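A further point concerns the way the authors explain their paired sequence and structure data. Since the whole study asks how a given chain folds, the encoding of that fold should be made plain. A single example would do more here than another paragraph of explanation. An entry of this sort, consisting of the sequence and the corresponding C-alpha cells, reads as follows:

_____
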Amino acid sequence: MGFMENADAKRRRLDPPTDVDAFAARGNRPQLHPTPTPPAGLRAGLHPQLHPNLQAAPPATTPVPAPAAGELPSGPRYQTQCVLGRGSFGTVCKAIEVRSRKTVAIKTVALSGAGREMEVLRRLSGNPNVVSLLGAFEGVDPEARTLNFVLEYIEDTLARIIKHHRQQGTEMDFNFVRIYMYQLLRGLGSLYREGVVHRDIKPANLLVDPASYCLKVCDFGTAKWVNTNEVSQAYVCSRFYRAPELILSTRDHNTSVDMWAAGCVLGEMLLHQPLFAGKDGIDQLFKIMEILGTPNAHQLSQMNSSYDAGAVFTHVPPLKWSKVLRARWSAQAEALLTMMLQYDPKLRPNPMEAMATDFFTELRKNPPKVRIASEFFNFTDQEMSSCKPELMRKLMPEKRLPGAPF
C-alpha cells in the first residue's frame, strides 16, 4: 500500500466527514431503545424464539400480574419486551423473567458459532466491569438452531451518552470522563488477565447504568483467546477504533488492539466525535497519520513485519494534542492518549498501568460522589496478584495504603 504526495494528504481533517450520519445533531435526548433497521443477510433473521406460549410483555404503564403458582412449566420463562439492537452476530432483546420479574437482556446467536462466545462469557462472568452471564438456553425453533445468552440488563450505553452531549452542545464533565475511562480500563484488565482480546471496543459496546454510573464491557461476538493456534482475522474492530496494525492487515495481534480502541474512546468522550473518522480503511490510516504523523520504518515493522517498509508514505508531521483536543486539552489527558495511541503495539501500556497514570489522580485524591465510587479501589485478589507492588501503590489512594490513617 503506498500513498502519493497530494494536497489533500497534507490537509488536517480533525472534524468527521459530513456524510457520516452518526454525527448529525438531530432532536433532543435520543430514544433509549430506538428501533434499528435490520441489516441484510441471513443473520438479520435471528431473533429470540423463547417460549411462544407466552405473549410479549404489555407496556410498562400496564400493571403486570404475577403468575400464579403452578401456571408455568418448570424452568425459566421470559417475556420479550423490545429489541435493543441487531448486529452481524445476533439480536439483543430486553426481557422479563416471569417468576422473579427480573429484567434481563437476551442475546440470540446462531448455535454453530456460539461456543467461543459462551466460553469467554463464562470465564469473564463476575470480573470487574464486564457484563455478567446469567444463563443460556437453546431456541425452541429446531430449524433456526439458535442459542440465547441471558445477560444482566444495563439500560444505557456510552455511545448514547456521548451522542446526547453532542446533540445538546454540552461537554462531558472531566470527572465523568475519568469515571467511565477508569472502569473501561478495569474491564479491559479483566480480559487481559484471562487472555481474551475483545476486538470490538467502542462506545456502543460499553453499557452504562445511569443510576450508579457503572460501566461494563459487553458483546464478545468477535472476541478470541490470546496465544492460541487460531488464525486471527485482520478485518476486526469497527473502523473508527481499528488499530493501525489491523489496517495494515496483520494477523498477529493481541490485547494491544483493545488498548488502541480504548484510547479512541477517550478521545471521543473529550471531543464528542470520533478521533479518527475515516471513510474506508485507507482513509482511516490517513486520519491517524494526520494526528500522529507518518510512521517510520521501525514502527511499520512492529505493526506488521511482513509489510513493505519501503512503501512510500507522504510525510506528515504529528499534531500537538493541544491542537487536536482544543479546549478539552490537559497535560494528563495528553499523556494518557500518547501512551495508548502508539504505532508500536508493544509500547502500549496494559490496562492496570494505564489506570495508574496521573489522569486518574483526581479519582484517587477525591473519589467522586457516585454510587460506584466505593468499588473503585476494592481490588480483587486476581487484580492485586497481577500487579507489581509499586504499581499497586500507585493505584491505591493514599488513605488506603497500609499504615495510612483512614
